[in-house]
Amino acid sequence: MANGQDEEYAEFDEQAVTATLEAARQPFEGREASAVTDLSATGGGVLEMRASCISVVSGNRRVCLKLPLGIGQVCIPVPFDVPNGTAVRACLSIRTSWGIPTGVCVKLYVAGEQIVSRCYP
């Protein structure tokens, strides 16, 4: 986690996060958990769904973001060859298991190439 010294934390669209969580829960609505007899991966399992992408700028060899689901403020390091001030596309995905949120993943892209992937927790 970051220490918050003069950092700007870019935020993802809250409505997109909410809509993604609803989409992940939808297949399980109205199903009683105790009635599920087939726990195979085909019936549920882990799902990672993109929620939102935003444009940010690298600084101090990292990108700082405010993440949903109570994770809070984080700074993700970028590779050594990405200069400060580089335009970075940050994409957030929500991870769920059986429709229940379990964490988030962030993927960073520069010029269409993925440079970092980090998941919390």
Helix content: under 10%
Into which percentage range does the β-strand content fall? over 45%
Q: Note the total helix count.
A: 1
Strand order of the largest sheet: 2-5-6-7
What pattern of helices and strands is seen along the backbone?
Answer: EHEEEEEE
Which parts are unreliable, with pLDDT below 50 for 5 consecutive residues or more?
none
Rg to the nearest angstrom? Answer: 17 Å
How would you describe the shape?
A: elongated
> Strand count, sense and closure of the main sheet?
4 strands, antiparallel
Please give the number of β-strands: 7
Number of structural domains: 1
| Helix vs. strand class | mainly beta
Mean pLDDT: 89
* Terminal-residue CA separation: 12 Å
Short summary of the structure?
This protein is mainly beta and 121 residues long.
Brief descriptors of the model:
3-stranded mixed β-sheet; 4-stranded antiparallel β-sheet; 1 helix; 121 residues
Q: Can you give a write-up of this model?
A:
This protein is mainly beta and 121 residues long. The mean pLDDT is 89. It has a four-stranded antiparallel sheet. A three-stranded mixed sheet has the order 1-3-4, with no helix packed on it. It is elongated, with a radius of gyration of 17 Å. Helix content is 10%, strand content 46%. The termini are close together. It contains one helix and seven strands; from the N terminus they run βαββββββ.
Write the layout of secondary structure elements.
Layout: E1 10-11, H1 14-25, E2 46-57, E3 62-67, E4 72-77, E5 87-97, E6 100-110, E7 113-120
Parallel strand pairs: 1-3
Antiparallel strand pairs: 2-5, 3-4, 5-6, 6-7
